Fold this protein.
Amino acid sequence: MDEQFVEDVLSAVERIPPGQVASYGDVAELVGRGGPRQVGQVMSRHGGAVAWWRVVRADGRPVRGLEGEAWEKLSAEGVPKRGDRVDMAVARMRGGGFGEARYEP
DNA sequence: AATTTGACGACCG
DNA sequence: TCGGTCGCCAAAT
């Protein structure tokens, strides 16, 4: 894990628009190397400087250990919530694709 | 060098 | 939805 990877991950996270989220795996894919766990590793150490609450688990649960804080930020940005998790079908960052799931409660 | 540990993820029952 | 299993990848023991 070099500094370059850290920089890349943090930049990727900074590119997540308010009101949307990305999974650890998504970030890893954007960065182009490493995996979800590596992203998690970086966030755990250096995530304080960016919008860490916009990075959630693939199943929509917010960051382990900081759920309270995360929900504050997320709901303040209007991120749609389903029960105790983010509604990924709606809030997940789209990579320019078109065929995306629709929202039906 | 071997094993355990994570801000994880896909699958299955 | 809820748990358990297995795969993953790098770092820390």
In short: The CA atoms of residues 61 and 67 of chain A lie 8 Å apart. Helices of chain A lie at 3-14, 24-31, 36-46, 67-76, 88-91. DSSP finds five helices and four strands in chain A. The beta strands of chain A are 22-23, 55-56, 81-82, 85-86.
